[in-house]
Amino acid sequence: MSDSAGNGESGGVAGAGQDSEADNEPPQQAPPLPEDEGFKVGENLEEGAPTSAKRPRLSEEDQGLEQVAKTVEMHGTQAQDSLLKEDPALPAQRAPLQSEEGGRGAQEVTVSEAGEEECRQNGDGEHDAPLEEAETKPEEHNGNGSADSPSEGQHLGLDFTQNPQMLTGSWTEYSNFPENYLKGCKWAPDGSCILTNSADNVLRVYNLPAEIYSYNWDLLPEMNPVLRMAEGDTIYDYCWYPKMNSLDPDTCFLASSSRDNPVHVWDAFYGEVRASFRPYNHLDELTAAHSLCFSPDGTQLYCGFDKTVRVFYTDRPGRDCEERPTVVKKQGQSGIISCFGFSPCQSVYACGSYSRCAGLYSCQDGTLLALLPTRHHGGLTHLLFSPDGNYLYTGGRKDPEILCWDLREPGKVVFSLKRNVATNQRIYFDLDLSGRYLLSGDTEGVVSVWDTQTAPPDGNEELLQPQLRFQAHWDCTNGISIHPFMPLLATSSGQRQFPWPGDSEGDSASDGEGGEAVMSQQESRQDNTMRLWWAGPLGPASEGNQEQNAAVVEA
Question: Would you say the C-alpha torsion 118, 340, 245, 234 has a positive or negative sign?
Answer without folding.
Answer: positive
